[in-house]
Amino acid sequence: MTTFATPTRTQVPDEIARRIVLPEGHSDNAALYEAYRWLRENAPLAKVSVDGYDDLWLVTKHADLMEIERQPQIFSAGGGEEKGTHNPMCANQAGDAFTKQLTGGSLRILDALPYLDPPEHSTVKDVAFDWFRPANLKKWEDRIRVIAKDAVSRLADGPRDLDAVQDFAVFFPLHVIMTLFGVPEEDEPRMMGLTQELFGTADPDAARDDVEHQSADAAAQQWAAAIADFYAYFDTLVEDRRANPKEDLATLIAVARQEDGEYFPKTFAYGWFVAIATAGHDTTASTIAGMFEQFALHPELLESVRTDLSLIPNLINEALRIVSPVKQFTRMAVADAEVRGQRIETGDRLMLLFQSGNRDAEVFDDPDTFRLDRRPNKQIAFGYGPHMCIGQHLAKLEMRVFLEELLPRLTKVELAGEPKMIQTNFVGGLRHLPVHLTLR
């Protein structure tokens, strides 16, 4: 018989639990990072109760995040053998009830990788895994560089004052991924709008007119409505690529076949397309915006990397750590387990706080400081284990090429106003970042 330790638990203050679990609690980065720090030092694996939500274990330490993510057979994204019985997004109870009503009882609103468990996850991931390998991405570097050169030229010719997020950071990675994906440029504003609706469930500026915003399930309503609009667009794309294949990522996914030779159901293509059209640029945009902020706060950082472009990979890695654009996902234990001496029971939910793990002082010296010389840098901004982001190498390639084109011309970055968090939802968020840019 397996026995589990029952250590004394530290009571987590309600304000800290609410700060982390509620989407609106993420509107203040300084307070959020302080809440993470308190948990790491006082209750690194803590079970909390917040009204309207299932009880959650808050996982704040780098080692625990890695331990959980490397064991999907125990810590499930989508419910394990009972598919659709767990939501990897931290929705409230009203939101999950809305989703079940919409789907006929399932929490799997998307046939996308974040909702899947092995072996199904592995089968679906293999559809495009080779396309995202670094060796295969090299053939796209010249095309990405053309896009980067054009973006930098428009920056140089544009207004000196701009919002680093809304006026630039989101559009470069969006144009890159849509170009490689095969979505026409004229449709990019539609993709941007839907992404803002999907990732802006707690942002009044991204609110949809067809959502009851005062209801407890408003975030889930908006999530579902944005997905439905994505589906309507991508259905046409799937049909077109199956009838008229092209040399693009959309075709690779649309014509993928199962072991029996039949196409995957179109919902799996939709799941890929939604993930690529949203997370494929949103996380990169957040990281680029974070770099602008660091350049403004630390001019010596800009000067160091501008005069030595070989430091760009270090810059990207540290920006990913300090920004950690994906805040969290949740997992459900499908068997009893022990983590950090705590008994995790079957059915318990765990909130994986990647932003906290990336500021863990046991792994990162001086974790709240942006350090260009940080080596090793064991950041887990892209997750860990089977669910590690498949697009991480493309994101790093985009940022490297962009910085190689921008930095030789960029002489100064200055903050022009207070940053404001936007697009806060279950998983991540962006901030308005008003800056002055000076380019030679």
What features would you describe in this structure?
- With 440 residues, this protein is of the alpha+beta class.
- It has 17 helices and 12 strands.
- The strands form 4 sheets. Strands 1-2-8-5-3 form a 5-stranded mixed β-sheet, sandwiched between helices.
- The longest helix has 32 residues, at 266-297.
- Mean pLDDT is 89; it is low at 1-6.
Throw out a few tags for this protein.
single chain; 440 residues; alpha+beta; 5-stranded mixed beta sheet; 46% helix; 11% strand; disordered N terminus
Order of helices and strands: HHEEHEHHHHEHHHHHHHHEEEEHHEEEE
Share in helix:
40-55%
Biggest β-sheet: count, sense, barrel? Answer: 5 strands, mixed
Categorize the overall geometry.
Answer: globular
How many E strands? 12
Strand order of the largest sheet: 1-2-8-5-3
> What share of the residues does DSSP label as strand, in percent?
5-15%
Structural class, from helix and strand content?
alpha+beta
Average pLDDT score:
89
Give the CA-CA distance, first to last residue: 70 Å
Poorly predicted tracts of residues: 1-6
Q: Report Rg.
A: 21 Å
Number of helices: 17
